[in-house]
Amino acid sequence: MAESEGRAVTYASIARALPEIEAITSRANGPGGFPTVLSEIVDGLVSTCRDAGLLRDIAALLTERYPPSAEASARLISFAQFHEAPDREAYLQRIDPDLATAVRRIWNQPHPSLKPGSRRRGRGATK
Question: Whole domain around residue 28: which residue ranges?
Answer without folding.
Answer: 2-85
